[in-house]
Amino acid sequence: MMNEDEFTTDTTGTEPPYFIEKVVTFKRQFNPKYGIDRKCKCGHPYYRHFDTHDDFYPVGCKYCDCYIFKEAA
Ligand SMILES: [Zn+2]
Ligand SMILES: [Zn+2]
User: Fold this and answer.
1) Which of 8, 22, 66, 72 could bridge across to 39 with cysteines, CB 3.0–4.6 Å?
2) Of the bound ligands, which one is closest to the alpha carbon of residue 46?
C-alpha cells in the first residue's frame, strides 16, 4: 500500500508536479468455491463461463453468447 500523504503533501508552496487520481477497478474472477458445475440460466455450467486455458479469465460462456453467469432458478 502506498502512502498517499507522500504525494498529496506540498511543503514548497508551489504547484505540485502531479495531481493524484484515484482509480478503482472491479474485476470478475473465477471463484472455485462457488462450485464449478452449477448451472447457468443459459444451460451451461459455471466453469464454462471462463477460459480454462487462460487463467480462468472471465470470457463468457464457451457454448453460447451468454457473457455473465446467472444461476438457473
Ligand atoms: Zn451462461
Ligand atoms: Zn451458455
Assistant:
1) 72
2) 1
How close is the Cα of 34 to the center of ligand 2, in Å?
Answer: 17
Q: Which residues does 47 contact at the CB level (< 8 Å), separation at least 6?
A: 30, 36, 37, 56
Grid cell 508536479 is found at: 17
Assessment of whether the complete model's pTM goes beyond 0.90: no
Set of cell numbers at residue 72: 438457473
pLDDT single digits (tens) 12-48: 678 888 889 999 998 889 998 999 999 999 999 999 9
Q: How far is CA 9 from CA 1, 3, 31, 40, 62, in A?
A: 17, 11, 40, 50, 50
